[in-house]
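Each record in this resource describes a single protein on a pair of labelled lines. An example record follows, reproduced without changes.
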Amino acid sequence: MIIAFACDHAGFPLKQPILEAIRAAGHEALDLGTHTSDPVDYPDFAEAVGRAIQGGQAERGILLCGSGVGACIAANKLHGVYAGVCHDTYSAHQGVEHDDMNVLCLGARIIGPEPAREIVQAFLAARFTGRDPGQERHARRVAKIRKLEK
C-alpha cells in the first residue's frame, strides 16, 4: 500500500520514526513534507495528503501536527477523506475496521515515538470489515456518513 505522509513543524520530530514504521510494515511512504522544523501551516499538509488520496496516488494517509486535531479537522474537509485522531492502538485499528478511516492523525506533542510506531502499525494492519458476513452494520453506518458528505 502507498501511504501519503505529511507533517507540520510541530509534527516534524516524529517524522522519521513514522516513516520508518510505514516502511517496516511493508508499505511505501509518499513523503509530502514538511522537510524542516521551520514553521508552516498544517492545513497545507492536510490538503496534500487528502489530495493524494483523492487522486489515487495513495490508499491511506498519516498526518502529524502538535495535537493531531488541526490536521484532522482540515483533512476531513476533503471529500472522500475520513480522518481520525488516534493516540491508542484500539482506536487506530477500530477506526479502519468499523468506520473505514483512511487517514490517521497523530499529535507529536501528545505521544512519543514508540507509541506512535505501534499506533501506525495497528492502523496499517487493519482493514474495513463492513463487507464481511455478519459485519454489514459497519457498511450501513459508513454509507450514512458518506450520505452526509453530499
